[in-house]
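Dock flavin-adenine dinucleotide; give full complex structure.
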Amino acid sequence: MQPEKFDAVVLGGGIFGCYAALYLAGKGAKVALFEKEGQLFQKASLVNQARLHGGYHYPRSIATAALSDAHKERFTREHRQFVNSSFEKYYAIDRFGSFTDAGQFERFCQYLKIPCTRIPAHPLFNFQRLEALYLTTEYSFDPVLLRQFYVHKVETTPKITVRKSARLEAVQKTTDSWAMTFRNAEQTQPGPGMRCESPIVINATYAATNAVNRLFGVRDLDLTHEISEIAFFTSEQFKNKGLTVMDGPFSSIMPFGLSGFLSLSSVAYTHHKISYENLPHFNCQVPEDPTCVPEAPGICTTCPRRPKSNAYKMLRQMQQYFTNAAQFTHWFSYFTIKSKLKTSYIDDGRPTDISVLSEKPTLICLFAGKVNSIYEIEKIV
Ligand SMILES: Cc1cc2nc3c(=O)[nH]c(=O)nc-3n(C[C@H](O)[C@H](O)[C@H](O)COP(=O)(O)OP(=O)(O)OC[C@H]3O[C@@H](n4cnc5c(N)ncnc54)[C@H](O)[C@@H]3O)c2cc1C
């Protein structure tokens, strides 16, 4: 069979891949979007804390903070119906072990010109643990609604061909194109693959970034990977509110978009397993399950070998910052792999790293930072 030809191929059907495909199609390109799983948006784009970053979270990385703040307005405007902007968002500084103190946090907010008002007393919060509490302006996007929106958009855009359950297996470089062969990811035995050709490829596969880069014969990014848990709670007293405690091994609870749930994460307990290798190697990957291997990780939430939930440990840590007036109920947890640049250990930064790893044919590696930085691809393509 002749390979199908496209102007551009996007690998990875999370929010960054979907946005890149839509952007290119909007410029008139004939685009193919390939996703390894049976559905789009099953991994980090669905399983995250849904914070529409306004910069507050990164007092040690001015670059990440400024980038989040720069895209906040546009992301909010263009996704208004999927954004919860009507809750009270508090940031607080822990009295013990924080890398940032109240004075530094206030100066940082002034520098970025992001609003923060110090709250001297509040019946829900425990000021014996909090050095300072601030009311800020930060929103939350709804990953489930975003998924519906982007899946519908890519699947109904005539210029985009979406191929699911398609895992990239082999790549050949011709003079000005990449020739790619995909295997049906649900197929355990090798069979005839789907083939296509394109002069431009965008690798937006996040946790699988290096596995895909290696198929193209280009360099790795230096990454670490963590199997992470987001726990979902409700609370009568704390609904329509969010609290993030800064800056170090602390925790955060806030509305998960418009779902009515609060998402809870904690630096100490969210990350169950860490892989310091460039590919995500974990001891829960077993030879009997070819749907999750370091070269092509699977979906953790539905995996029978996912870690035991740490939801109650996270809650106990979080409750230190509340008075007894606030009560929480745990409903369920989601799990996924969180991938980070190794450099983020220095300043906790989460830049969106876009590198052109081959000029002709073109390979663009799009390693995602914060969700509201989807627009960064426009600077390159
Ligand atoms: C626990 C956690 C909390 C977070 N909290 C926030 C937050 O509050 N706010 C925020 O802005 N950001 C947050 N992030 C970061 C944000 O979620 C990610 O940066 C973003 O979702 C990554 O999007 P993506 O499209 O690049 O990756 P993904 O959504 O992971 O999509 C990549 C896709 O590529 C597919 N794929 C993999 N290999 C192949 C292959 N060989 N061929 C084809 N497809 C392939 C995968 O199956 C997957 O669907 C968080 C992330 C995590 C994990």
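Observed: The two ends are 30 Å apart (CA to CA).
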